[in-house]
Amino acid sequence: MEKSFDIIALSMIILVTYSSKMVSVAGRSLHEPSIVEKHEKWMAEHGRTYKDDLEKEKRFKIFKENLEYIEKANEEANRTYKLGTNEFSDLTNEEFRASYTGYRVPSQSSSSRQSTTASFKYQNLTDVPTSMDWREKGAVTPIKNQGQCGDCWAFSTVAAVEGVTEISSGNLIPLSEQQILDCSIDGNRGCGGGWMDNAFKYIIKNQGIASEADYPYKEVQGTCEDAQVKAAAKISNFEDVKPNDEQALLQAVAMQPVSICIEGSGPDFQSYKGGIFNGGCGTQCSHAVAIVGYGATEDGMKYWLIKNSWGESWGEAGYMRILRDVEAPEGLCGIATKPSYPVA
């Protein structure tokens, strides 16, 4: 009798174990096709193709991991922003950082900044609007895409020069990032990174920068051809905003778009979709963008408006709103550490 009971008990254990495995397999088999479909749809939307099935399998796994991270993050209650898929969704965060950032400051830059910061011309500005959007003022060109070249610094530079050119002349002209990439080589490293102040110096020395139409973007550094094109815009100088001071930065952005650096390489930054970004970063700058405005939500949350260079599938059609006036003097993600702007 006891032996019979043991056999029955063993049979029940096997049955329960088998049933739980079947439920688990069924759960996976129901879940997996939906992710496969999402990946296929994502591939079609972004024109993504892979060299072989092995590469596709690898990218699918990364896409799945990123999607799971996005869905989990969006369920957290304390976030004022949402994540979503974009053209970077089949890249690991390491791959993303290596290809799509590129802010690099020369080691000797700190001493040179101290002398130029003293000339910050907006430091006594008191009539600062409560909000500003330079897009609405007609001083911002459409979102661009740097591609797999770490020349965000060139795009940040050009966005600021495009802005001040329109403000001073009334003409909004898309200018050439490729010229900056090819020709601003004193202290900059092309797709390996660079600094906006060095790019401003180049434009001044060259007595101008060509239009994007005359010197189009190629996503790779080439031979400098500045002697073969005419200048579409010029600047006379550039100035550095007082570092680690969001009020000083506000004074500058109230008057024109400003080049800034940011720690924009974390997974939340990679998959940012919309809302007021309020976390997921440190203050060690890795990426360069332009601030093209600021404002506040109806419930009083203050933000900066950033123009990025990662195409329109990222963020709010290529833009980000990021929390403004935080306790840290560097600003969120280091946004106030090294701002600068060109002078027409």
From TrEMBL:
SUPFAM superfamilies: Cysteine proteinases (SSF54001). One of its GO terms (molecular function) is cysteine-type peptidase activity. The keyword Signal applies. Residues 128-343 form the Peptidase C1A papain C-terminal domain. Keywords: Disulfide bond, Hydrolase, Protease, Signal, Thiol protease. InterPro entries: Papain-like_cys_pep_sf (IPR038765), Pept_asp_AS (IPR025661), Pept_cys_AS (IPR000169), Peptidase_C1A (IPR013128), Peptidase_C1A_C (IPR000668), Peptidase_C1A_papain-like (IPR039417), Prot_inhib_I29 (IPR013201). GO terms for biological process: proteolysis. Residues 39-96 form the Cathepsin propeptide inhibitor domain. The keyword Protein biosynthesis does not apply. The lineage of its organism: Eukaryota, Viridiplantae, Streptophyta, Embryophyta, Tracheophyta. It comes from the Eukaryota. Belongs to the peptidase C1 family. This is Uncharacterized protein.
